[in-house]
Amino acid sequence: MRAGTVLRTVWLIVAVGSMLLPVYAMLVVASAPDDTDLRGLVFNGFHLPENIGLLFGEGNLPTYLRNSLILCVGTGVLDVIFSAAAGYAMAQLSFPGRRVLFALVVGTLALTPMVLVIPVFLIVKELGWVNTFQGMMVPGMISAFGVFLVRQFALGIPKELLLAARVDGAGEFRIFARMAVPLLKPALITLFLVHFLAQWDNLLWPLIVANEQELWPLPVGLANFQSEVGFNYHLTTTAALVTAVPPFILMVALQRYYVAGLTFGGLKR
Amino acid sequence: MSVLGGGRVRPQAMAGVALTLPVAVFFVVFWLVPFLAAIYLSFTDYEMAGTPNWIGLANYERMFADPGFLNSAWITVVYTVCTVVPTIVLALLVAVPLSKPGGLNRRLRALVMIPAVMPLAATSMVWVIIYSDRGLANTLLGLVGIAPQSWLTSSDLAIWALVVMVVWKSMGLFVIILTAGLQALPGEVYEAAAIDGSGAVTTFTRITLPLLRRTLLFVLVISVAGSMQAFVPAFLLTGGGPAEATQVLPYYIWANAFPYEHMGYAAAMGMVLLAAMVIVSALQFGFLKGGDE
Question: Which residues in chain B touch residue A4, judged by CB atoms under 8 angstroms apart?
Fold first, then answer.
């Protein structure tokens, strides 16, 4: 029994250690003074602050970072608002078209982006939104996942509670804003986090719709970074590290919601 | 509702319509219309500059005579199988001991989240450097006396370089999901098994795996779907090369649609990818649900 525990601990440390090795290598290369040493095993001084300073002093990293923040926070907030409204209504209110809308949401969950990007691009082109922020933001603004998540969560709101409010004479919108939204808060935080992380990592759509560098978010910027910094490997790694920091901060701050977002769908019995 | 009488239903219906209207409009404009348009385009010869002409099944016939498509389809199958199986097995091997209570495990669980929370684009750039001539991969090979390899520029190795990165990246994610699933399992069953003198292996195969079925199905479905749709690793690490060795189907579809503007043909390949995904998901559900009593 005791030997088993020791073995288990050793295995876990080895396994988690190897999972962290690439992250460690990233830190080492991102802190390197120049491009000569990419082995990533031992720190060759700690030049991370200078490297970050270099990237922010010249080059487009600040622009990419700003664009990503606008994209993620902007669409994240809108997704939370619209999904909260629709998810709550679909769970708790009876209205015509409820079933059709739910079928539409579930259908969207099953769809691959590669099927949709071609016609969505043509629609965005028709609207004159190519190379604009709204072109990058609007098509990904609302996620089927969000509506579905809020709906599942809102099904758990006790009907009696809403009924009592109605008997007291509260209007439907007031009930939604004052009673449902506070009760839905954990789901809405989870949704914001999931949406933010997905958008932060979205390469395909901005790549297609934005060909002006001024508009690029980080993933597109990173894809072109090598040529931008003259195939400078250690500065590219520093840029990758900078890209990884905001999601990491969010994850640490909202760890509980992060796991909830990931395991959604996997645990219900 | 009828208890309250008809007068109460109307404001509810109005509120319901009002609250769902933005989402309904959004889904029609950015999902339903594009989906129908994609089906239509797949039967046309649409190129960005011209007008779509109906050509019936010609795109679908062309696909099965197109070496580029057949190559991509095969690479996608290999890539999917070779990422999904090791990822789930390895994630399970880490998640089972990691789900046990304990201070060290709690700390390790927090560390496992780091690879999972790394953006894929950033991860890909880091692995480009790991796979570079003087990078970490060759350093580690050197420690065991193997000559350096050109990971991303050798047509034999490049696909495996992608596979290793993706296994690493998604493993972190699945360890978290599986750990949460394992921690949600009822403790009494394990106590009963321990009283009956059940060994570790028997407990795992007879109790843990069957109880974990739902979480496993979830992990399997999202990892197969993720691998079949994977675009970013091939785009960022290899650009589909060398010599089309990493040209997975989503990459081939994107390349046909955007740089080359063969929208009709790309739409048809998108339909085939979608059909394949629906069939594979249905098989997985059938396979894992079939075992339930």
Answer: 200
Q: Radius of gyration over alpha carbons of chain A, in Å?
A: 23
Residue B3 is classified by DSSP as G
pLDDT in tens, B205-243: 888 898 898 899 989 999 999 999 999 999 999 988 898
The CA distance from B212 to A93, in Å, is 35
On chain A, the residues whose CB falls within 8 A of the CB of B120 are: 201, 203, 219
Stated length of chain A: 269
Q: To which H or E segment does residue B118 belong?
A: none
**CA dihedral sign, ordered B178, B183, B189, B194:** positive
In the beta sheet, which residues pair with residue B54? B44
pTM value is 0.91
Q: Rounded to an integer, what distance in angstroms lies between the CA atom of residue A112 and that of residue A109?
A: 8
At B146-181, the pLDDT tens digits run: 988 899 998 899 999 999 999 999 999 999 999 999
**CA distance linking residue A236 with residue A232, whole number of Å:** 6
Could you give the CA distance from residue A31 to residue A51 in angstroms, rounded to a whole number?
7
Contact present, A259 and A266 (Cβ < 8 Å)? no
Place of tokens 């599986």: B178
Q: How many helices (H) and strands (E) does chain B have?
A: 15, 0
At A200-252, the pLDDT tens digits run 999 999 999 998 999 999 999 998 887 777 768 888 999 999 999 999 999 88
The answer to whether A147 faces chain B, any CB pair under 8 Å, is yes
CA angle A27, B95, B196 (to 5 degrees): 155
**Taking a C-beta distance cutoff of 8 angstroms, is the pair B157, B149 a contact?**
yes
- Number of neighbours of residue B219 by Cβ within 10 angstroms: 25
**Which residues does chain B have within 8 Å of residue A86's beta carbon, measured at their own beta carbons?**
19-20, 22-24
- Residue-averaged pLDDT of chain B: 90
Nearest Cα to Cα of residue A198 among A121, A135, A142: A142
Q: What is the pLDDT of residue A109?
A: 86
pLDDT lower than 50: segments of chain A: 269
Chain A residue with the nearest C-alpha to that of B9: A94
ipTM value for the complex: 0.90
Which of the four pLDDT bands, split at 50, 70 and 90, describes residue B102?
Answer: confident
